[in-house]
Amino acid sequence: MNRSTLHLSLALTGLLVASAGAMAPAHELHGKGAVQAADDDGRGTDWVLDSNDSLCGLSEARQLSSPAKVDYPALLSCTTEYETIRKEKVDPNTPRWIELHNAAHSKVVGACSQAMNDGGHCSVWKKIRHRRGDRITDLTATVRASLKGS
C-alpha cells in the first residue's frame, strides 16, 4: 500500500469513527464532550423560571397562562414533619430526615394543588417571575392555612 492510499484509509477510518460517535445515543455520549440540553428557563416565553421549581400543574413555560407562586421553605417549616425535625434535631444526613422531609414535601404539594385548582391557576412554583414584571399571585397564605387545618 502506498503512502497516499494509507493516508486516505486513515482519514476515512477517522471519519467513520467520528460519525459513529455523533450517531450514538445521548446517554452514551454523556461525559465525552456531549452537550446536554439546558433546563427550560422560559426563554421565548413571558416567564423566567427554572423547571425544577415547579411544584404542581403545568411545568413547561410555553404552556403557562396563570401560574402562582409560594414561599416553599416557609410552607415546609409549618408542617408537623418539620416541627419534628426541629424538636428532635434530626440530622439531614439520615434516612429519618429524608422520610420526614419527603412527607412534608408531599403535604405541601397536595395543599398547593388544591389551592391551584380552587384559584383557577395552571401551576404553582417555588420561584417564577414575569418578564414584564407583571404580578404573580402568591398562594403562600392560602396553602399555609390549608396545612394548619389538616
Describe the structure.
The chain contains 6 helices and 6 strands. It starts with a helix and ends with a helix. By secondary structure, the protein is α/β, with parallel strands linked by helices. A 4-stranded mixed beta sheet has the order 2-4-3-6, covered by helices on one side. A two-stranded antiparallel ribbon has the order 1-5. The longest helix has 25 residues, at 95-119. The protein folds into 2 domains: 1-37; 47-149, Protein Binding, DinI Protein, Chain A (2-Layer Sandwich). 50% of the residues lie in helices and 12% in strands.
Brief overview, please?
The protein has 150 residues and is an alpha/beta fold.
SSE order and pairing:
Blueprint: H1 3-23, H2 26-29, E1 47-49, E2 54-57, E3 67-69, H3 72-77, H4 80-88, H5 95-119, E4 123-125, E5 128-130, E6 137-138, H6 140-149
Parallel strand pairs: 3-4, 3-6
Antiparallel strand pairs: 1-5, 2-4
CATH architectural grouping of the largest domain: 2-Layer Sandwich
Put simply, the count of helices is 6
CATH structural fold name of the largest domain? Protein Binding, DinI Protein, Chain A
Round the Cα radius of gyration to an integer and report it. 25 Å
Mean pLDDT over the residues: 81
How many structural units, i.e. domains?
2
Low-confidence stretches: 5-38
Global geometry: elongated
Distance between the termini: 82 Å
Q: Please report the total strand number as a whole number.
A: 6
Name the assembly state.
single chain
